[in-house]
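Hello,

Our lab assistant flagged a job as stuck in the queue for most of the afternoon. It eventually completed. Since we weren't sure the result was trustworthy after the delay, we are filing this so someone can double-check. Below is the sequence as submitted and the structure that was eventually returned. Let us know if re-running is recommended.
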Amino acid sequence: MFNKNKADIRFAEDPAEALRLYNERGYHIEPEVFSAAECQRLIAAGKDLAAKGDGTFRPLMSPHRVDALFLRTMADKRLTTIIQQLCGGAVHGLQSELFFGWPGTPGFAAHQDNFFVEAPEGAFVSAWTALVDVSPANGGLVMYPGSHRYGVLPVEKLSGPVSPNQDPNAGAQRSILPEGHAAGVDLYISQGSVIFLHSLVVHSSHDNGSDKWRHALLNTYIRQGAPFRSGNYARRSPIDLSTVTA
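-- returned structure --
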C-alpha cells in the first residue's frame, strides 16, 4: 500500500479512537475514501474548467460554484459524517480549492488554516483529498503534530516571488512555531485518501520536484452558526449541504 504512515484507525471502524487521535495530533488520515475512478473524474473536470478559464493551472478557487461534481463531492457523506464528529455538530460547506500541482510548483509555507478563516476553535475543519498518490517528491504535505494546541501562532511575512501556478497565499507568510517543537512529519498519502485538518494544526508542503502532476482537492467546513472571515480571495460563504442531491 502506498500510504507509508503509521496505520490510522478508521472512523468507520472505531470513531471514538479515531477522534481521540485527531484531537491528540491535530489531523487524521482516512485511507482511500474515494475510488481511483472518482479521483480521475475530478481531475478531468478540473482540467476542463481550467481550459475554459484563463488557460493556466493556478489552483481553482471554489470549483463547487461552477461544477456540480465538486459540490456533490463537498456534500459526500463519506466526508461530512466525519466532519460533523470533528466539528461537534451539523456543518455547512465553506470553501473548495482544486490544486493541479504541475511539475515545478512550489510548496506552501508552514501555516494554520484558521489564520485565514478566523473561526472559533473547533468549529472549522479542512478535508484535503489526494487525487493521485502524494509523497514528498511530488509536493506532499508536512504536518506538525500537536501544534494545534498552541492556539493562533504569530506569523512572519515572506517576500518570495508569487508563482503563477500556486495559490497566491502560499508564500505570503509563515507560522512561527515555538522553539523546541518537534520537526515536521512527511505524509505519504495514497490516491483517494483524505487528510482531515484541525483549523490550527501547522502544516506545509514540499515543492513538486517530480515530472508528474500532484492533483489534490481541498474542501472546508464550518459548524452551523459559527462566525468566519469571508476573505477577499476565497470569498467564503456557507453552503447548506442538505440540499445537495447525488
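-- support follow-up --
The delay was a queue issue, not a problem with the job. The result is valid. Residues 1-5 have pLDDT under 50 and may be disordered. Residues 43 and 221 are 22 Å apart (CA to CA).
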